[in-house]
């Protein structure tokens, strides 16, 4: 068993991480063209290949094959989290493995400015109130392994390494990131702080909506407009992204008609609302839920401590190669000191 407690490492894997400032590159040794063992580590912000003492089993091409399988399997599962990244709503933490929490703060507003003809009247002299909080930075991970014989048979036989296990592990890690972002995986607590998702964020604005049918699209439109108004009432004016659960798809993609035939779907009609950039389906959103999310960093952002990465270590005398797909990808949902936010959650 490898573990780190009170700044002291026990075990080979934990010791190597401690000695290298938790750089996961030390657990990715590869065999170079000269048959020597190398690892790619961060040196002053630059990735460099360095000769290492650890015995490497995989060649660089083997790592490329595994990484490609993991990333390709993960990409389709990351929708809500990927949208935050695509919108530039990110906060990168260098060497996130060496940090366990991100300290944040909320700020209150101050009173309005005064209006006078000569500027001599004394205005309210107040200051914003700040409140500190912690965002946990958990590692999301999934393990798999190969026997040393499988690796050698693949190399000597000329056939590519079977990446089925790696693909499954990458998919599971991505699914958990997505579920944490949506809120269907529950909250995660550490260090006095919580990781929340869209549907369990305590400060989110909730609204009761009507169960969809093929004939009440106009009702849905009115309820979405009310969700937008509630965001405005909380001083969040867009732009927004709207999400729906898979149960909405038959209605979202059906014909929309306020009176008579229509050449557009309900999804297209909702996307025409001023300020809503699109309506997307989230695989892990449940029931008949709708989400309206303002796309600004004061509402939601993707905290990136470490992108999806695969590391490796040996056990059982080198006869088993253990792999771990892991990532530090955490949603950070935010509200101001008065609990105003741009996250609107509609549910039946």
Outline the secondary-structure elements.
Elements: E1 3-5, E2 8-10, H1 12-19, E3 30-31, E4 37-43, E5 46-51, H2 60-74, H3 80-86, E6 90-92, E7 101-107, E8 130-136, E9 140-147, H4 148-157, H5 164-182, E10 188-190, E11 193-195, E12 205-208, H6 217-233, E13 240-244, H7 249-252, H8 266-271, E14 276-281, E15 290-294, E16 300-315, E17 320-333, E18 343-347
Parallel strand pairs: 6-16, 12-18, 13-14
Antiparallel strand pairs: 1-2, 3-4, 4-5, 7-8, 9-17, 10-11, 13-15, 15-18, 16-17
Helix pairs in contact: 2-5
List keywords for this structure.
348 residues, alpha+beta, 8 helices, 18 strands, hypothetical protein PF0899 fold, single chain, 4-stranded mixed beta sheet, 31% strand
Q: In brief, what are we looking at here?
A:
The protein is α+β, with helices and mostly antiparallel strands and 348 residues long. The chain is built from eight helices and 18 strands.
List the strand order in the largest sheet.
12-18-15-13-14
CATH topology of the domain at 205-300 and 341-347: hypothetical protein PF0899 fold
Task: For the record, give the distance between the C-alpha atoms at the N and C termini, rounded to a whole number.
Answer: 47 Å
The top level CATH class name of the domain at 205-300 and 341-347: Alpha Beta
Total beta-strand segments: 18
């Amino acid at each position: 068993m490898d573990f780190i407690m009170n700044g002291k490492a026990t075990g080979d894997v934990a010791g190597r991480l401690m000695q290298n400032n938790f750089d996961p590159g030390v657990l990715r040794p590869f065999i170079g063209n000269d048959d020597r063992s190398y690892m790619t580590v961060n040196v002053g912000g630059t990735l460099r290949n360095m000769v290492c003492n650890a015995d490497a089993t995989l060649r660089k091409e083997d790592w490329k094959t595994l990484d490609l399988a993991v990333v390709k399997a993960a990409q389709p599962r990351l929708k809500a989290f990927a949208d935050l990244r695509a919108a530039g709503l990110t906060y990168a933490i260098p060497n996130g493995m060496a940090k366990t929490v991100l300290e944040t703060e909320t700020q209150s507003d101050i009173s309005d400015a005064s209006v006078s003809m000569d500027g001599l009247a004394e205005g309210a002299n107040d200051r914003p109130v700040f409140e500190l909080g912690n965002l946990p930075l958990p590692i999301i991970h999934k393990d798999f392994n190969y026997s040393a014989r499988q690796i050698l048979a693949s190399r000597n036989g000329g056939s590519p390494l079977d990446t089925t296990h790696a693909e499954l592990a990458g998919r599971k890690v991505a699914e958990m990131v997505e579920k944490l972002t949506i809120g269907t995986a529950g909250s995660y607590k550490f260090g006095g702080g919580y990781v929340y998702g869209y549907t369990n964020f305590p400060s989110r604005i909730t609204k009761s909506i009507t169960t969809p049918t093929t004939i009440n699209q106009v009702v849905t439109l009115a309820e979405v407009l009310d969700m937008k108004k509630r965001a405005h009432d909380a001083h969040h004016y867009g732009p927004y992204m709207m999400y729906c659960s898979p149960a909405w798809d038959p209605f979202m993609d059906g014909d929309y008609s306020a009176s008579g035939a229509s050449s557009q779907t309900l999804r297209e009609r909702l996307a025409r609302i001023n300020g809503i950039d699109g309506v997307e389906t989230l695989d892990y959103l449940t029931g008949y839920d709708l989400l309206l999310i303002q796309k600004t960093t004061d509402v939601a952002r993707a905290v990136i401590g470490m992108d999806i990465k695969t590391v490796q270590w040996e056990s059982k005398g080198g006869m088993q190669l253990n792999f771990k797909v892991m990532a530090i990808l955490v949603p950070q949902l935010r509200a101001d000191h008065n609990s105003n936010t741009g996250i609107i959650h509609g549910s039946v």
